[in-house]
Structure formats: structure tokens, C-alpha cells
Design a protein that fits this description.
Low-confidence stretches: none
Number of helices: 2
Strand order of the largest sheet: 1-2-3-4-5
């Protein structure tokens, strides 16, 4: 069976979206931010992304990193959701590009 985030591993305030092809998504309950792992190649490489929506007017997808396997992508996806929550709890006015910069700087997400 392919690895997916276990319900107990998904951070509070996040939920797994329905599986769409080669994409695994965790969406925050407020609906304005999501983190995704998207299969990039047939060799099982995965791209991690953060998607943010501003007032349902437009959506921006920001690259976060890469993983070599689906198992690594799932672990990184859960870590990314946790990091996003932590950063937003520290400062609720933090912009999405600042979240990505802090996530990459802190190296909390293994990608």
C-alpha cells in the first residue's frame, strides 16, 4: 500500500483533501492555505508546494522543495503543515512568501 499521511500525524487544524491523481494535499481548515506533494516524474520524485488563496480572488503556488520518494514526500508534507501552523501562530500577519523563506531557512522540512 502506498504511504499516505495517517490521521493521527496530520497537524491540528489541517485535513487531507481527496486524492487527485499523483497529488497529496493537506488543507488548513480556514481554507486559505494548503500544502501539496505532487509527483514530478515516473521515477517517484515529488515536488512540495504551498498554495495560498487571498480572499478567493486568486491562488498562488509556491515551490518548497523536493523529495526522492513518496514516503519522504509524505513525511515532508506533514512537517511542512506543522511548520506553517507554527509560523502562523507566532505571527498571524505573516505573508506566504515569508512563511516559505522561514521554512527553508529553518530546515524543519526534510526536502
Amino acid at each position: 500500500m502506498e504511504p499516505l499521511p495517517k490521521t493521527g500525524d496530520i497537524p491540528a487544524g489541517w485535513e487531507q483533501s481527496p486524492i487527485r491523481g499523483d497529488e497529496i494535499e493537506l488543507r488548513h481548515q480556514n481554507g486559505d492555505i494548503a500544502v501539496k506533494a505532487v509527483r514530478a516524474t515516473r521515477a517517484d520524485e515529488w515536488e512540495l508546494e504551498m498554495e495560498d488563496s487571498i480572499g478567493n480572488r486568486y491562488t498562488t503556488i509556491r515551490p518548497v522543495g523536493q523529495a526522492d520518494t513518496k514516503k519522504q514526500a509524505v513525511a515532508a508534507l506533514v512537517a511542512l503543515a506543522e511548520a506553517v501552523s507554527d509560523l502562523r501562530n507566532e505571527r498571524d500577519d505573516m505573508l506566504p512568501q515569508d512563511i516559505i523563506r522561514e521554512v527553508k531557512r529553518s530546515q524543519r522540512v526534510p526536502v
